[in-house]
Design goal:
By secondary structure, this protein is mainly alpha-helical. The protein has seven helices and no strands.
Length: 275
Amino acid sequence: MQDHIAGPADLRGDCASCFGLCCVALPFTASKDFAVDKPAGKPCSNLQDDHRCGIHTRLRQKGFTGCTVYDCFGAGQKVSQVTFGGRDWRTDPREDARRMFDVFPVVRQLHELLWYLTEALTLPAARPVHADLRRMLERTEQLTRQTPEELGVLDVPAHRRDVNVLLLRTSELVRAGTRGKKKDHRGADLMGARLKGADLRGASLRGAYLIAADLTGADLRGADLIGADLRDTDLTDADLTDAFFLTQPQLNAAKGNAGTGLPGTLTRPGHWAKA
């Protein structure tokens, strides 16, 4: 019987099927993003007995903006219900809980790669590498279904490098369809940059630092935004309708409004300006 391959629905966090792993496994430091310090492996003080967040609707007001820009890409429910077969860390031996917390970040990285690979397979321009992308998707899904012991020793950076070769080729094929000279800002430091109304069609912004940059009214159609840091980036009235490798956490970290054009697979953040 063929293994189930994750689809879009599997790559979105389902808190009802998770044991609050992101609220326990991950550490955070008191800052503008988090109101308090919390070490890895310690439950957040806002986590309730039913594994739900007690201040979910007031996270920003309570100083937990960092929680609103995080997404496990479905890794939480995978680890909770598949890797550990529905065993709750609250009731299982401490060693099982520790292994669960160690495995969660590994599976989260793999699920993020699944997100990109799944999106790449929807891009018609990437058809020349669709077969390779599909094989890599299947391979990555198989890795997520390994035992806790196997996941604990998995060389995720090596697998990420293999995936990235295909994602880079996908980017080249997709951006080649944009006319004119395409800007290459891969890994660029554009923090606070004034790019209002900039023509960034087909640009490579892979891993670019766009923290607090002004991109109001910018044209980002066909731009590659994988790994771009969009914290406090102003996307008011910007056009990202055909941007690719853009994720919900990136949007949640940015600023925008009702006039910001988005890809159909993503949701307009609730904290964005309404007009």
